[in-house]
Amino acid sequence: MSEALDLGLRAQAAAIAAGEADPAQLLEAALARIEQRNPTLNAVVETFPERSREMLAAAPPGPLHGVPIVVKDEWPLPWRAQRFGAAELHVKTEPAESGPYRALRDAGAVVVGVGNMHELGAGSTGNTSWYGPARNPWDTARCPGGSSSGPASAVAARLVAGAVGADGLGSVRFPAAYCGLTGLKPTFGRAAMDGHHMAPVTTLIVSGPLCADAADCRLLGSVLFGEELTTGDAAGLRIGVVRDAVSEDVAPEVREACEAAIEALRAETGGEVVEVELADLEAAAVAAIVTINGESTTGIAPADLNDLHPELSPLARASLKYRMLVPGAAAVQAGRVRTLMRERLAALFERVDVLAWPTVPAPAPPLEAPLVELPSGTALADKANVRGAALANLTGTPAISVPVGLSGEGLPLALQLAAGWGGDALLLDAAEALERANGRRWVDSRPAVAESEPAAADPA
Amino acid sequence: MAGSTDPDDFVPAGLAALGIEADEAELALIGGLHQVFWPAILDLLALDTKGVEPERCPDLSAAPR
Fold first, then answer.
1. Which of A342, A413, A416, A459 is the most exposed place for a label (fewest CB within 10 A)?
2. Band of residue B1 on the pLDDT scale cut at 50, 70, 90
3. Are B41 and A342 a contacting pair at CB < 8 A?
4. Cα–Cα distances in Å, from B56 out to A17, A151, B63?
5. pLDDT digits (tens, 9 = 90+) for A269-313
6. Is B63 on the interface with A (CB under 8 A)?
7. Which helix (H) or strand (E) holds B33?
8. Is A265 within 8 Å of A228 (Cβ atoms)?
9. Whole-angstrom Cα distance, residue A200 to residue A213?
Protein backbone atom coordinates (compact mmCIF):
# COMPACT_ATOMS: atom_id res chain seq x y z
CA MET A 1 0.00 0.00 0.00
CA SER A 2 3.03 2.29 0.23
CA GLU A 3 2.74 2.60 -3.55
CA ALA A 4 -0.67 4.24 -3.20
CA LEU A 5 0.65 6.46 -0.42
CA ASP A 6 3.31 7.74 -2.80
CA LEU A 7 0.66 8.82 -5.32
CA GLY A 8 -0.59 12.36 -5.50
CA LEU A 9 -3.92 13.36 -3.97
CA ARG A 10 -6.12 12.94 -7.03
CA ALA A 11 -4.37 9.68 -7.96
CA GLN A 12 -5.03 8.31 -4.48
CA ALA A 13 -8.69 9.30 -4.76
CA ALA A 14 -8.93 7.79 -8.25
CA ALA A 15 -7.25 4.55 -7.17
CA ILE A 16 -9.69 4.13 -4.30
CA ALA A 17 -12.67 4.98 -6.49
CA ALA A 18 -11.53 2.42 -9.06
CA GLY A 19 -11.09 -0.26 -6.44
CA GLU A 20 -7.37 -0.38 -7.07
CA ALA A 21 -6.47 0.78 -3.57
CA ASP A 22 -8.02 -0.20 -0.25
CA PRO A 23 -8.66 2.93 1.83
CA ALA A 24 -8.28 1.00 5.10
CA GLN A 25 -4.84 -0.19 4.03
CA LEU A 26 -3.99 3.29 2.83
CA LEU A 27 -4.89 4.74 6.23
CA GLU A 28 -2.77 2.16 8.06
CA ALA A 29 0.11 2.82 5.67
CA ALA A 30 -0.16 6.56 6.33
CA LEU A 31 -0.15 5.98 10.10
CA ALA A 32 2.86 3.68 9.77
CA ARG A 33 4.71 6.15 7.62
CA ILE A 34 4.03 8.96 10.09
CA GLU A 35 5.45 6.75 12.81
CA GLN A 36 8.45 5.98 10.64
CA ARG A 37 9.34 9.38 9.21
CA ASN A 38 7.83 11.90 11.59
CA PRO A 39 10.41 11.62 14.39
CA THR A 40 12.96 13.44 12.25
CA LEU A 41 10.42 15.96 10.92
CA ASN A 42 7.98 16.76 13.75
CA ALA A 43 5.47 17.61 11.05
CA VAL A 44 2.53 15.82 12.67
CA VAL A 45 1.96 16.62 16.33
CA GLU A 46 -0.86 14.18 17.00
CA THR A 47 -2.48 11.17 15.42
CA PHE A 48 -5.67 9.48 16.62
CA PRO A 49 -5.86 6.14 14.82
CA GLU A 50 -9.21 5.08 16.24
CA ARG A 51 -10.83 8.40 15.35
CA SER A 52 -9.40 8.17 11.85
CA ARG A 53 -10.64 4.60 11.45
CA GLU A 54 -14.10 5.68 12.64
CA MET A 55 -14.04 8.55 10.18
CA LEU A 56 -13.16 6.16 7.37
CA ALA A 57 -15.87 3.71 8.39
CA ALA A 58 -18.44 6.50 8.16
CA ALA A 59 -16.96 8.17 5.09
CA PRO A 60 -19.52 8.94 2.39
CA PRO A 61 -18.75 8.65 -1.29
CA GLY A 62 -17.07 11.83 -2.36
CA PRO A 63 -14.17 13.33 -4.26
CA LEU A 64 -11.70 12.46 -1.47
CA HIS A 65 -13.25 9.21 -0.30
CA GLY A 66 -10.75 7.37 1.88
CA VAL A 67 -7.88 9.80 1.31
CA PRO A 68 -5.77 10.67 4.40
CA ILE A 69 -5.34 14.38 5.08
CA VAL A 70 -3.42 16.40 7.67
CA VAL A 71 -5.07 19.51 9.17
CA LYS A 72 -3.06 22.35 10.69
CA ASP A 73 -3.30 22.89 14.46
CA GLU A 74 -5.42 25.95 13.76
CA TRP A 75 -8.90 24.43 13.74
CA PRO A 76 -10.71 22.24 16.21
CA LEU A 77 -11.70 18.67 15.41
CA PRO A 78 -14.67 16.97 17.08
CA TRP A 79 -12.27 15.20 19.42
CA ARG A 80 -9.55 17.83 19.82
CA ALA A 81 -9.28 21.59 20.38
CA GLN A 82 -6.65 23.53 18.45
CA ARG A 83 -3.54 24.77 20.29
CA PHE A 84 -2.36 27.18 17.56
CA GLY A 85 1.18 25.88 18.10
CA ALA A 86 1.24 27.49 21.51
CA ALA A 87 1.18 26.66 25.20
CA GLU A 88 -1.70 29.06 25.65
CA LEU A 89 -4.40 30.80 23.68
CA HIS A 90 -6.27 33.77 25.06
CA VAL A 91 -9.57 32.45 23.87
CA LYS A 92 -11.26 29.32 25.07
CA THR A 93 -11.04 26.54 22.53
CA GLU A 94 -12.97 23.30 22.58
CA PRO A 95 -13.30 20.27 20.36
CA ALA A 96 -15.74 21.09 17.57
CA GLU A 97 -16.73 20.46 13.98
CA SER A 98 -14.80 23.18 12.17
CA GLY A 99 -15.52 24.24 8.63
CA PRO A 100 -12.47 22.50 7.15
CA TYR A 101 -13.28 19.33 9.12
CA ARG A 102 -16.87 19.29 7.84
CA ALA A 103 -15.73 19.93 4.27
CA LEU A 104 -13.23 17.07 4.46
CA ARG A 105 -15.67 14.70 6.16
CA ASP A 106 -18.41 15.41 3.65
CA ALA A 107 -15.95 14.77 0.82
CA GLY A 108 -15.15 11.37 2.31
CA ALA A 109 -11.63 12.28 3.44
CA VAL A 110 -9.98 10.95 6.58
CA VAL A 111 -8.19 13.30 8.97
CA VAL A 112 -5.11 11.29 9.88
CA GLY A 113 -3.22 13.84 11.96
CA VAL A 114 -2.75 17.40 13.12
CA GLY A 115 0.01 19.44 11.54
CA ASN A 116 2.55 21.44 13.53
CA MET A 117 2.64 25.23 13.12
CA HIS A 118 4.63 28.30 14.06
CA GLU A 119 3.67 29.44 17.55
CA LEU A 120 0.50 31.58 17.45
CA GLY A 121 0.82 31.67 13.66
CA ALA A 122 3.25 34.51 14.11
CA GLY A 123 6.15 33.59 11.86
CA SER A 124 7.10 32.70 8.30
CA THR A 125 9.74 30.13 9.23
CA GLY A 126 8.13 27.53 11.50
CA ASN A 127 11.20 27.53 13.75
CA THR A 128 9.18 28.13 16.94
CA SER A 129 6.38 25.96 18.23
CA TRP A 130 5.15 24.65 21.55
CA TYR A 131 5.65 21.18 20.03
CA GLY A 132 9.17 22.01 18.92
CA PRO A 133 9.82 23.11 15.35
CA ALA A 134 8.76 21.11 12.33
CA ARG A 135 11.66 20.39 9.99
CA ASN A 136 12.10 20.80 6.27
CA PRO A 137 12.26 17.40 4.52
CA TRP A 138 14.72 18.81 1.98
CA ASP A 139 17.18 19.57 4.78
CA THR A 140 16.10 18.93 8.34
CA ALA A 141 18.39 21.68 9.62
CA ARG A 142 16.35 24.19 7.60
CA CYS A 143 13.08 25.95 8.28
CA PRO A 144 10.01 24.33 6.72
CA GLY A 145 8.29 27.70 6.45
CA GLY A 146 5.43 28.97 8.54
CA SER A 147 3.10 29.23 9.89
CA SER A 148 1.70 26.07 8.19
CA SER A 149 5.00 24.30 8.85
CA GLY A 150 3.71 20.84 9.70
CA PRO A 151 1.22 20.50 6.85
CA ALA A 152 3.92 21.41 4.32
CA SER A 153 6.55 19.17 5.88
CA ALA A 154 4.05 16.29 5.96
CA VAL A 155 3.16 16.58 2.28
CA ALA A 156 6.75 17.12 1.14
CA ALA A 157 7.82 13.97 3.04
CA ARG A 158 4.84 12.10 1.55
CA LEU A 159 3.28 11.31 4.90
CA VAL A 160 0.10 12.39 3.15
CA ALA A 161 -0.70 13.79 -0.28
CA GLY A 162 -2.64 16.79 0.89
CA ALA A 163 -2.94 19.07 3.89
CA VAL A 164 -5.03 22.02 5.00
CA GLY A 165 -3.13 25.12 6.05
CA ALA A 166 -4.09 28.68 6.86
CA ASP A 167 -2.77 31.91 5.39
CA GLY A 168 -2.98 35.27 7.19
CA LEU A 169 0.20 36.91 5.93
CA GLY A 170 1.59 34.20 3.64
CA SER A 171 1.34 31.17 5.91
CA VAL A 172 0.38 28.71 3.17
CA ARG A 173 2.70 30.17 0.53
CA PHE A 174 5.89 30.39 2.62
CA PRO A 175 5.94 26.70 3.62
CA ALA A 176 4.88 25.71 0.11
CA ALA A 177 7.89 27.63 -1.19
CA TYR A 178 10.37 26.28 1.34
CA CYS A 179 9.16 22.67 0.95
CA GLY A 180 8.79 22.57 -2.86
CA LEU A 181 5.00 22.31 -2.89
CA THR A 182 2.08 24.09 -4.50
CA GLY A 183 0.07 26.16 -2.04
CA LEU A 184 -3.04 28.22 -2.70
CA LYS A 185 -4.12 31.24 -0.67
CA PRO A 186 -7.75 31.59 -1.75
CA THR A 187 -9.76 34.73 -2.28
CA PHE A 188 -10.88 35.96 1.15
CA GLY A 189 -14.07 34.35 2.37
CA ARG A 190 -14.28 31.55 -0.20
CA ALA A 191 -12.70 28.63 1.65
CA ALA A 192 -14.05 26.98 4.80
CA MET A 193 -13.04 28.94 7.88
CA ASP A 194 -15.66 28.20 10.56
CA GLY A 195 -14.32 27.15 13.91
CA HIS A 196 -11.11 29.13 13.66
CA HIS A 197 -10.87 31.11 16.89
CA MET A 198 -10.25 34.31 14.89
CA ALA A 199 -12.94 33.67 12.27
CA PRO A 200 -15.36 36.25 13.72
CA VAL A 201 -12.80 39.07 13.58
CA THR A 202 -10.22 38.33 10.92
CA THR A 203 -10.22 40.08 7.58
CA LEU A 204 -7.01 38.41 6.46
CA ILE A 205 -6.89 34.70 7.28
CA VAL A 206 -8.12 31.97 4.93
CA SER A 207 -7.77 28.21 4.81
CA GLY A 208 -5.91 26.79 1.85
CA PRO A 209 -4.57 23.56 0.35
CA LEU A 210 -0.96 22.38 0.30
CA CYS A 211 -0.24 19.62 -2.22
CA ALA A 212 2.45 18.47 -4.62
CA ASP A 213 0.92 20.09 -7.69
CA ALA A 214 -1.79 22.41 -8.91
CA ALA A 215 -4.29 19.73 -9.91
CA ASP A 216 -4.14 18.28 -6.41
CA CYS A 217 -4.62 21.77 -4.98
CA ARG A 218 -7.60 22.16 -7.30
CA LEU A 219 -9.15 18.99 -5.87
CA LEU A 220 -8.53 19.83 -2.20
CA GLY A 221 -9.32 23.49 -2.82
CA SER A 222 -12.67 22.58 -4.38
CA VAL A 223 -13.51 20.63 -1.23
CA LEU A 224 -12.59 23.58 0.99
CA PHE A 225 -14.49 26.01 -1.26
CA GLY A 226 -17.55 23.78 -1.45
CA GLU A 227 -17.61 24.34 -5.18
CA GLU A 228 -15.60 23.05 -8.10
CA LEU A 229 -12.63 25.10 -9.16
CA THR A 230 -13.11 24.29 -12.81
CA THR A 231 -10.23 23.79 -15.17
CA GLY A 232 -9.96 26.60 -17.67
CA ASP A 233 -7.57 27.89 -20.22
CA ALA A 234 -4.66 30.15 -19.44
CA ALA A 235 -4.06 30.86 -23.13
CA GLY A 236 -2.86 34.36 -23.86
CA LEU A 237 -2.00 34.94 -20.20
CA ARG A 238 -1.00 38.54 -19.47
CA ILE A 239 1.70 38.33 -16.80
CA GLY A 240 2.45 41.48 -14.84
CA VAL A 241 5.90 41.90 -13.35
CA VAL A 242 6.89 44.61 -10.88
CA ARG A 243 10.43 45.96 -10.87
CA ASP A 244 10.52 46.50 -7.12
CA ALA A 245 12.23 45.00 -4.09
CA VAL A 246 9.88 42.01 -4.19
CA SER A 247 11.43 40.91 -7.48
CA GLU A 248 14.80 42.70 -7.35
CA ASP A 249 16.06 42.35 -3.76
CA VAL A 250 16.17 38.57 -3.91
CA ALA A 251 18.93 35.97 -3.97
CA PRO A 252 20.39 35.67 -7.48
CA GLU A 253 19.38 32.03 -7.92
CA VAL A 254 15.81 32.89 -6.87
CA ARG A 255 15.70 35.70 -9.39
CA GLU A 256 17.07 33.53 -12.19
CA ALA A 257 14.65 30.67 -11.49
CA CYS A 258 11.65 33.00 -11.30
CA GLU A 259 12.56 34.93 -14.43
CA ALA A 260 13.00 31.65 -16.31
CA ALA A 261 9.66 30.42 -15.01
CA ILE A 262 7.89 33.62 -16.04
CA GLU A 263 9.30 33.32 -19.54
CA ALA A 264 8.36 29.63 -19.70
CA LEU A 265 4.81 30.47 -18.58
CA ARG A 266 4.57 33.21 -21.19
CA ALA A 267 5.75 30.85 -23.92
CA GLU A 268 3.49 27.99 -22.82
CA THR A 269 0.39 30.17 -22.75
CA GLY A 270 1.26 32.26 -25.80
CA GLY A 271 0.87 35.23 -23.53
CA GLU A 272 2.82 38.35 -22.79
CA VAL A 273 4.90 39.81 -19.98
CA VAL A 274 3.95 43.35 -19.01
CA GLU A 275 6.00 45.54 -16.69
CA VAL A 276 3.68 47.31 -14.30
CA GLU A 277 3.97 49.81 -11.45
CA LEU A 278 2.69 48.93 -8.01
CA ALA A 279 3.90 51.43 -5.46
CA ASP A 280 3.89 51.20 -1.66
CA LEU A 281 4.24 47.43 -1.34
CA GLU A 282 6.26 47.90 1.86
CA ALA A 283 3.49 50.04 3.33
CA ALA A 284 0.94 47.42 2.33
CA ALA A 285 2.90 44.77 4.21
CA VAL A 286 3.09 46.93 7.32
CA ALA A 287 -0.63 47.70 7.03
CA ALA A 288 -1.36 43.98 6.93
CA ILE A 289 0.84 43.36 9.98
CA VAL A 290 -0.83 46.16 11.92
CA THR A 291 -4.23 44.80 10.94
CA ILE A 292 -3.57 41.19 11.91
CA ASN A 293 -1.87 42.25 15.14
CA GLY A 294 -4.99 44.18 16.07
CA GLU A 295 -7.29 41.34 15.12
CA SER A 296 -5.20 38.79 17.00
CA THR A 297 -5.35 40.77 20.23
CA THR A 298 -9.09 41.34 20.09
CA GLY A 299 -10.54 40.53 23.48
CA ILE A 300 -7.20 40.60 25.28
CA ALA A 301 -6.99 43.13 28.10
CA PRO A 302 -3.54 44.46 28.96
CA ALA A 303 -3.76 42.89 32.41
CA ASP A 304 -4.22 39.47 30.78
CA LEU A 305 -0.65 39.75 29.58
CA ASN A 306 0.66 39.73 33.15
CA ASP A 307 -0.41 36.14 33.56
CA LEU A 308 0.94 34.44 30.45
CA HIS A 309 1.61 30.73 30.38
CA PRO A 310 5.22 30.04 31.41
CA GLU A 311 5.76 27.82 28.38
CA LEU A 312 4.86 30.55 25.91
CA SER A 313 8.11 31.42 24.14
CA PRO A 314 9.93 34.60 25.19
CA LEU A 315 9.44 36.08 21.72
CA ALA A 316 5.71 35.33 21.73
CA ARG A 317 5.38 36.96 25.15
CA ALA A 318 7.26 40.01 23.97
CA SER A 319 5.30 40.20 20.73
CA LEU A 320 1.93 40.03 22.47
CA LYS A 321 2.93 42.84 24.79
CA TYR A 322 4.40 44.98 22.03
CA ARG A 323 1.21 44.70 19.98
CA MET A 324 -0.53 46.69 22.70
CA LEU A 325 1.78 49.65 22.04
CA VAL A 326 0.92 50.10 18.36
CA PRO A 327 -1.09 53.32 18.04
CA GLY A 328 -4.68 53.28 16.91
CA ALA A 329 -3.80 55.80 14.21
CA ALA A 330 -1.73 53.09 12.54
CA ALA A 331 -4.78 50.84 12.35
CA VAL A 332 -6.82 53.62 10.75
CA GLN A 333 -4.03 54.31 8.30
CA ALA A 334 -3.81 50.58 7.55
CA GLY A 335 -7.47 50.73 6.53
CA ARG A 336 -6.74 53.58 4.15
CA VAL A 337 -3.78 51.72 2.66
CA ARG A 338 -5.98 48.66 2.23
CA THR A 339 -8.44 50.71 0.20
CA LEU A 340 -5.61 52.32 -1.77
CA MET A 341 -4.07 48.97 -2.66
CA ARG A 342 -7.43 47.38 -3.49
CA GLU A 343 -8.16 50.22 -5.90
CA ARG A 344 -4.71 49.95 -7.46
CA LEU A 345 -5.03 46.19 -7.87
CA ALA A 346 -8.51 46.51 -9.38
CA ALA A 347 -7.08 48.84 -12.00
CA LEU A 348 -4.02 46.65 -12.52
CA PHE A 349 -6.04 43.49 -13.08
CA GLU A 350 -7.79 45.23 -15.94
CA ARG A 351 -4.43 45.22 -17.72
CA VAL A 352 -2.94 41.90 -16.63
CA ASP A 353 -4.34 38.52 -15.61
CA VAL A 354 -1.72 37.65 -13.01
CA LEU A 355 1.14 39.29 -11.16
CA ALA A 356 4.34 37.30 -10.74
CA TRP A 357 7.24 37.63 -8.33
CA PRO A 358 9.22 35.30 -6.07
CA THR A 359 7.22 33.83 -3.21
CA VAL A 360 10.18 34.25 -0.88
CA PRO A 361 13.40 36.12 -1.61
CA ALA A 362 15.74 33.29 -0.59
CA PRO A 363 15.60 29.54 0.02
CA ALA A 364 14.80 28.10 3.45
CA PRO A 365 17.18 29.48 6.10
CA PRO A 366 18.64 27.45 8.97
CA LEU A 367 16.27 26.69 11.83
CA GLU A 368 18.81 27.95 14.33
CA ALA A 369 19.26 31.32 12.61
CA PRO A 370 16.41 32.27 10.27
CA LEU A 371 18.30 34.95 8.37
CA VAL A 372 18.53 35.34 4.60
CA GLU A 373 21.23 36.87 2.44
CA LEU A 374 19.87 39.41 -0.03
CA PRO A 375 21.51 41.96 -2.32
CA SER A 376 20.57 44.60 0.27
CA GLY A 377 22.29 42.63 3.04
CA THR A 378 21.43 40.11 5.71
CA ALA A 379 17.77 40.24 6.72
CA LEU A 380 15.40 38.51 9.12
CA ALA A 381 13.52 35.95 7.04
CA ASP A 382 10.21 37.07 8.53
CA LYS A 383 10.74 40.68 7.52
CA ALA A 384 11.95 39.83 4.03
CA ASN A 385 9.25 37.25 3.34
CA VAL A 386 6.21 39.26 4.33
CA ARG A 387 6.77 42.10 1.86
CA GLY A 388 5.85 39.92 -1.11
CA ALA A 389 3.05 37.99 0.53
CA ALA A 390 0.92 40.33 2.63
CA LEU A 391 -0.63 42.23 -0.27
CA ALA A 392 -2.93 39.31 -1.09
CA ASN A 393 -4.14 39.13 2.50
CA LEU A 394 -4.61 42.86 2.84
CA THR A 395 -6.64 43.13 -0.36
CA GLY A 396 -8.47 39.78 -0.27
CA THR A 397 -7.02 38.60 -3.56
CA PRO A 398 -5.89 35.02 -4.24
CA ALA A 399 -2.28 33.95 -4.74
CA ILE A 400 -0.44 30.71 -5.32
CA SER A 401 3.12 29.51 -4.75
CA VAL A 402 4.55 27.12 -7.31
CA PRO A 403 7.94 25.37 -7.25
CA VAL A 404 10.26 26.53 -10.02
CA GLY A 405 13.68 25.09 -9.19
CA LEU A 406 16.24 23.95 -6.70
CA SER A 407 19.05 26.04 -5.29
CA GLY A 408 22.69 25.09 -5.44
CA GLU A 409 22.21 23.59 -1.99
CA GLY A 410 19.27 21.53 -3.20
CA LEU A 411 16.56 23.67 -1.61
CA PRO A 412 13.28 24.51 -3.38
CA LEU A 413 12.76 27.86 -5.13
CA ALA A 414 9.30 29.24 -5.79
CA LEU A 415 7.32 31.73 -7.84
CA GLN A 416 4.18 33.45 -6.59
CA LEU A 417 1.30 34.23 -8.92
CA ALA A 418 -1.48 36.56 -7.80
CA ALA A 419 -4.81 37.23 -9.49
CA GLY A 420 -7.85 39.38 -9.07
CA TRP A 421 -10.71 38.53 -6.72
CA GLY A 422 -12.24 35.17 -7.63
CA GLY A 423 -9.30 34.29 -9.85
CA ASP A 424 -8.46 31.17 -7.84
CA ALA A 425 -9.14 28.77 -10.71
CA LEU A 426 -7.15 30.95 -13.08
CA LEU A 427 -4.16 30.69 -10.76
CA LEU A 428 -4.46 26.90 -10.81
CA ASP A 429 -4.72 27.00 -14.63
CA ALA A 430 -1.58 29.12 -14.78
CA ALA A 431 0.26 26.86 -12.36
CA GLU A 432 -0.65 23.82 -14.45
CA ALA A 433 0.57 25.61 -17.58
CA LEU A 434 3.87 26.25 -15.83
CA GLU A 435 4.10 22.59 -14.85
CA ARG A 436 3.61 21.64 -18.51
CA ALA A 437 6.20 24.16 -19.57
CA ASN A 438 8.89 22.67 -17.37
CA GLY A 439 7.86 19.05 -17.87
CA ARG A 440 6.64 18.76 -14.26
CA ARG A 441 10.27 18.71 -13.25
CA TRP A 442 9.81 20.61 -10.01
CA VAL A 443 6.44 19.36 -8.83
CA ASP A 444 7.66 15.80 -9.24
CA SER A 445 10.93 16.44 -7.37
CA ARG A 446 11.09 14.81 -3.96
CA PRO A 447 13.45 15.15 -1.04
CA ALA A 448 15.51 12.10 -0.17
CA VAL A 449 13.45 11.42 2.95
CA ALA A 450 10.39 10.88 0.74
CA GLU A 451 12.20 8.24 -1.29
CA SER A 452 13.48 6.09 1.57
CA GLU A 453 11.27 3.14 2.45
CA PRO A 454 12.69 0.65 4.92
CA ALA A 455 10.62 -2.46 4.26
CA ALA A 456 10.45 -3.46 7.91
CA ALA A 457 8.40 -0.39 8.81
CA ASP A 458 5.94 -0.82 5.98
CA PRO A 459 2.92 -2.96 6.88
CA ALA A 460 2.04 -3.39 3.21
CA MET B 1 8.26 68.96 24.36
CA ALA B 2 10.49 66.62 22.42
CA GLY B 3 9.10 63.13 21.83
CA SER B 4 11.10 59.98 22.09
CA THR B 5 10.89 56.70 20.27
CA ASP B 6 13.96 55.33 22.02
CA PRO B 7 12.89 51.91 23.28
CA ASP B 8 14.65 52.69 26.57
CA ASP B 9 11.96 55.35 27.07
CA PHE B 10 8.99 54.37 24.94
CA VAL B 11 8.66 50.69 25.74
CA PRO B 12 8.77 50.82 29.57
CA ALA B 13 6.64 53.94 29.63
CA GLY B 14 4.07 52.49 27.25
CA LEU B 15 3.85 49.20 29.08
CA ALA B 16 3.62 50.94 32.44
CA ALA B 17 0.80 53.15 31.18
CA LEU B 18 -1.13 50.03 30.26
CA GLY B 19 -0.25 48.22 33.46
CA ILE B 20 1.68 45.53 31.60
CA GLU B 21 4.56 43.97 33.48
CA ALA B 22 7.78 42.91 31.78
CA ASP B 23 11.08 41.65 33.15
CA GLU B 24 14.48 42.69 31.83
CA ALA B 25 14.64 39.89 29.28
CA GLU B 26 11.19 40.74 27.92
CA LEU B 27 12.02 44.42 27.82
CA ALA B 28 15.07 43.62 25.72
CA LEU B 29 13.03 41.55 23.28
CA ILE B 30 10.25 44.14 23.09
CA GLY B 31 12.88 46.80 22.48
CA GLY B 32 14.21 44.71 19.60
CA LEU B 33 10.73 44.40 18.12
CA HIS B 34 10.28 48.14 18.51
CA GLN B 35 13.48 48.86 16.63
CA VAL B 36 12.33 46.63 13.76
CA PHE B 37 8.71 47.73 13.52
CA TRP B 38 8.56 51.31 14.71
CA PRO B 39 10.32 52.88 11.70
CA ALA B 40 7.98 50.92 9.42
CA ILE B 41 4.95 52.11 11.40
CA LEU B 42 6.15 55.69 11.16
CA ASP B 43 6.59 55.24 7.39
CA LEU B 44 3.05 53.87 7.23
CA LEU B 45 1.71 56.87 9.14
CA ALA B 46 3.65 59.24 6.89
CA LEU B 47 2.24 57.78 3.67
CA ASP B 48 0.09 60.31 1.87
CA THR B 49 -3.42 58.87 1.84
CA LYS B 50 -5.24 62.15 1.51
CA GLY B 51 -8.24 61.65 -0.69
CA VAL B 52 -8.46 57.94 0.05
CA GLU B 53 -11.84 57.25 1.51
CA PRO B 54 -11.62 53.95 3.37
CA GLU B 55 -14.20 51.39 2.36
CA ARG B 56 -16.71 50.78 5.10
CA CYS B 57 -17.12 47.08 5.80
CA PRO B 58 -15.46 46.16 2.51
CA ASP B 59 -16.39 42.94 0.78
CA LEU B 60 -12.90 41.51 0.62
CA SER B 61 -14.01 38.68 -1.63
CA ALA B 62 -14.59 41.14 -4.44
CA ALA B 63 -13.05 44.16 -6.10
CA PRO B 64 -13.87 47.54 -4.54
CA ARG B 65 -17.03 49.12 -5.86
1. A459
2. very low
3. no
4. 47, 35, 14
5. 999 999 999 999 999 999 999 999 999 998 899 999 999 999 999
6. yes
7. helix B24-46
8. no
9. 31
Residue A87 near residue A129, CB atoms below 8 Å = no
Q: Is A312 an interface residue toward B (CB < 8 Å)?
A: no
Q: How distant is the Cα of B2 from the closest Cα of chain A, in angstroms? A: 18
Q: Does A81 touch chain B (CB under 8 A)?
A: no
- Cβ neighbours of residue A253 closer than 8 Å, sequence gap 6 or more: A363, A405, A407, A408, A413
Task: Say if strands A238-242 and A272-276 run parallel, antiparallel, or are unpaired.
Answer: parallel
Q: Residue ranges of the domains in chain A?
A: 2-287+322-457
Please tell me which residue in A129, A149, A171, A247 is annotated as part of the active site.
A171
pLDDT over 50 at A208, yes or no: yes
Which residue among A187, A317, A337 places its CB closest to the CB of B26?
Answer: A317
Catalytic annotation, pick one of A124, A147, A148, A207: A147
The ipTM value here is 0.92
Given this structure, which CATH class describes domain A2-287+322-457?
alpha beta
Comparing CB atoms, the residue among A187, A188, A333 nearest residue B45 is A333
Q: Which residues of A touch B63 (CB under 8 A)?
A: 342, 345-346, 349, 420-421
pLDDT for A402 beyond 70: yes
